[in-house]
Amino acid sequence: MRFTRYAFLYENDEENFGKEKRLSPEETLFSKYSDCDDRAALFFYLVKEIYNVPMIALLYPTHITMAVQFDTPVGGDPIVYKGKTYSICEPTPQKEDLGIGKMSADLKKVPYQVVYAYEPKKK
Questions:
Q1: Predicted confidence (pLDDT) per residue in 46-91, tens digit
Q2: pLDDT-derived band at 110, boundaries 50, 70, 90
Q3: Of 20, 76, 101, 123, which is most buried by a Cβ count within 10 Å?
Q4: What pLDDT is stored for residue 98 in this prediction?
Q5: Any bridge partners for residue 67, and if so which?
């Protein structure tokens, strides 16, 4: 989380490119600026490749973030989706320094939609 939050400067796509542009994880690594969807994609890619654990993407009206299923939920704002508990892992810098399982105060009462669920294939 800290890497995707602070390794790059934040700028929304309208300011950076003049329009919405989704960067691939590789493009995010080489770009000076990125926004929340770019960082969520990079976070997803890194967690999938290194840990290969279940994750969900949470889409808010103006933000996207990730949540990860751990053996035991971490933090105080768990997300329950299809009977499984996930801990938010915010990949984008926020006003407050959020630990694993913590949700931005600005989003706590905002409805979200799960737009992607990753479940590793069983071997």
A1: 999 999 999 999 999 999 999 999 999 898 889 999 999 999 999 9
A2: very high
A3: 101
A4: 94
A5: 56, 88
Buried b / exposed e over 71-92, threshold 16 CB at 10 Å, is eebbeebbbeeeeeebbbbbbb
Query: Which CA distances in Å does 118 have to 2, 38, 46, 52, 68?
Result: 21, 17, 13, 9, 9
Residue 77 structure tokens: 């704002």
Is pTM beyond 0.90? Reply is yes
Task: Identify the sign of the CA torsion 27, 43, 1, 95.
Answer: positive
Cβ-contact 91, 5 below 8 angstroms: yes
Give the distance from CA 71 to its chain's centroid. Answer: 19
- Say which residue the tokens 């669920």 belong to: 117
Instruction: Compute CA distances 18 → 24, 55, 74, whole Å.
Output: 18, 31, 38
